[in-house]
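Lab notebook page, bench 4
Experiment: in silico fold of construct C2
Operator: M.H.
Input chain length: 214 residues
Purpose: comparison with the prior construct
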Amino acid sequence: MRRDGYNLFLTASHCSSKSWEDDNTVFYQAIPDYYDFSRVGVEYDDKQGSSCGFLSVNVCRYADATLVRTDVGIGDELGRIARTRYAASSVAPDTLGSLEIDPANPYFQIVGSTSVAVGTTVQKIGARTGWTRGSVSATCVDTNASRSYSKLRCQVRTKTWVSKGDSGGPAFLLNPEGTVYLLGVFWGRTKNGSDHYYSPLSGVQRDLGTLIIN
């Protein structure tokens, strides 16, 4: 994506050194595994939250998200999501999708963004569990964030399987011809682990400004 003339990518704010705060965290990509790392960019824009209301001790935002400015020469391209070889065979928990980029079809092309209804199937690509999918169980939930005394407003809750290490993975709607609508960014799970949350793109842009996504 782009903003202010820069190439950026979106990830979860709690993946930076200090969530909900500009801290110039340097981001790395694991190549080909978690023991070999290559720098890809530096945090560009994160925001502190605002009061959740009169007499509230909590701070609120609409997205657990930060923007990272990609380094020159990384080779990122606007409007694309890396595509792995295959989706998980089931929507059941602990069912993994492929982590290997498909050399014959290496990316999804983003054609826009949209909102979703309960029951819609949401896809995700994550660093830990790969390509998974599951249905939306709620479209606007206020919930505790991953940091103390913080809340996220109007998050989308889904059955899409997400595990630790997947935070920052894109939520997207897969079209029949293979293009996608970008929906938002995954960041956490419910207390019982049965459902998972993503911050919708509308919330990301409310916190971080308008983004060019395709």
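Observations: The radius of gyration is 16 Å. Residues 201-208 form the longest helix (8 residues).
Next step: discuss at group meeting.
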